[in-house]
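Continuing the series of single-chain predictions for the mutant panel. This is the parent chain; the variants come on the following pages.
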Amino acid sequence: MPASDQQRQQLLHICGQLREALESSQTLGGSSSELAEVEATLTSLNRQMAALRDRKMLEFYNPDYKGDFRNILPCSPLSGYFNPIAPELKIWREDEFVYAEGSLGKIHEGPPASVHGGVISGIYDQVLAFTGLANELPGMTASLTIKYHRPTPLFKTIRFTTWLEKKRDRHIIIHGECHSDGTLLTSAEGLFIQYKK
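Parent structure:
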């Protein structure tokens, strides 16, 4: 049964609390008794959530995303509002470009104080695919090439800019760059194969 508006809001708030808990877990410290209390609380919560598991009320895909690309795949680990590990990025289209902007925290850390390169690659894969959709060219990733120019900092605003480069037959090439404070951090090229209608 699909979630009601109230249930969607409740699930959204639950994911927000889980996201905060995951972020806290990366720098958690305390006495043995303090950690034991947190462990007991989480154990109890996990039992409660396990009793409600396998009753998914959210759609896998939402074609009516109303200009907010994060609504397309509500549970995506890279862009979904309803996935606590998804980076909190605003994703939108402006003219011929699709943008994704926000900051990433400790849950996405690789090298010290920097975002893990695999997370950056995943974000590119998602946003480049959204760029295809924005141009009415939905497709599956065939290849993805990332160039890492500088480490991507944690807790600083970063912006991905992506655009359609060219299309030949069912082959779609989409490019992207990520900047922070005017500095080029990474660049990408994705090859997508257009879905057959």
